[in-house]
Amino acid sequence: MQENEVRTELVIPAPIDAVWRVLVDFGGYADWNPVMEYTQVDGAKTKVKAAKGTPFERDFEGEITSMEPHVLASQGGDPETFFGRHRWELTATDSGTRLVNVEEFSGTMAAGVLAQTRDVLVAEFDAFNQALRQVFAA
Known about the structure:
Blueprint lengths: L4 E8 L3 H8 L5 H4 L3 E7 L2 E6 L7 E11 L2 E8 L3 E12 L2 E11 L3 H26 L3
Antiparallel strand pairs: 1-7, 2-3, 3-4, 4-5, 5-6, 6-7
């Protein structure tokens, strides 16, 4: 793992195309995702509410940079001070779909912010992953 990267992953017991459909259905996030609202506003522009209901709740704007099959990517922030590039990568496995949830941060404040918030971000990413996995629980 890179110093300015937060990365989590797990295997979801479901076919990759089924997981992909849920991941890119931003309007459906309210049905399964307790930690994030992700709204596509205008084309690639997005509004995000992260860490819903926690002391770390925050709103920010971003843009979708890729919706290639099985890779959803977005970015946002100020490139000079604090900028994030986020990816959700899906790969098929024998037992379902591996989800990699990763964000790389850059800018003059990135190292300092991550030093203070890495554990919080890892917990948020894990909560997202577990919530997506729960969609496919029996």
